[in-house]
Amino acid sequence: MQPHGFWGHVFGWLMDRFNASSHNFAFKRLEVHNSDRVLEIGFGTGRLARKLAKAARDGLVGGVDPSELMLQTAEKRTRKFRKKGRVELKLGDASSLPWPDATFDKAAALHSFQFWRDPACDLVEIRRVLKPDGLLLLLLRTHKKAGPKWLPNPISRSGQEIAGALQLLTDNGFVGTRLEGKVGSSAILTARKAV
Ligand SMILES: C[S@@+](CC[C@H](N)C(=O)[O-])C[C@H]1O[C@@H](n2cnc3c(N)ncnc32)[C@H](O)[C@@H]1O
Questions:
Q1: Domain total for the chain?
Q2: Ligand 1 atom nearest to 141, measured from its CA
Q3: What is the mean pLDDT of the chain?
């Protein structure tokens, strides 16, 4: 859940390779403009955050991840952009985002939703920091049956992850909620903060 130690390094290396197609897809789908402010929840090794920062030349990339190892790794990777104030990475999780209301134009969480302890509250928090009409992109690794019991997220454990997440988005003030298809074995969910 929070990569650390030797196996955390191994896990990070694997994520870079196996999640590259998700990162590339998310980068295209987010259609980042020069001045965009983009939030990434659970940024892992920072591979996507760096791509986003390259595109948002006059904007900002913010991110939270509860793993110290992932924070250090992603900070190294985005050093050049952090120096210019274009990237702000913080140790933390989806439930408390240290930015003011309506900071971001877009938000993305790739393969991290399943680890959120309280997804309903977390979505409310994400909605708070999004601007009206701001886009949220979730990539959810799909399970053929119910997910493992050790996952903290009750929706991911239930085997109803996609339907449950779509419902939760609608219940928590997102509009235009859509299942857009799949990238690899991951479902693509999008929604917008109501205007
Ligand atoms: C499977 S990795 C995915 C990393 C990256 N998004 C990617 O696709 O390569 C899951 C990440 O979510 C982070 N994470 C775990 N619990 C979290 C939470 N409650 N909120 C935000 N991120 C969390 C982990 O530390 C880890 O970096």
A1: 1
A2: 1
A3: 93
111 CB under 6 A from ligand 1?
yes
CB of residue 70 inside a 6 A radius of ligand 1: yes
The answer to whether the pTM exceeds 0.90 is yes
CATH number at 170 reads 3.40.50.150
Judge contact between 130 and 107, C-beta under 8 A: yes
Return the ligand 1 atom nearest residue 16 CA.
9
C-alpha of residue 176 to centroid of ligand 1, in Å: 25
Task: Specify the pLDDT at position 49.
Answer: 98
| Domain enclosing residue 151, as ranges | 5-193
67 CA → ligand 1 middle, Å: 8
C-alpha closest to that of 113 among 148, 153, 63, 166 = 153
The pLDDT tens digits for 2-45 are 777 777 777 777 788 888 999 999 999 999 999 999 999 999 99
Mutate to test the pocket of ligand 1, among 112, 140, 143 (most ligand atoms within 8 A of CB): 112
Phi, psi of 73 (to 5 degrees): -65, -45
The whole-angstrom separation of Cα 38 and Cα 5 is 29
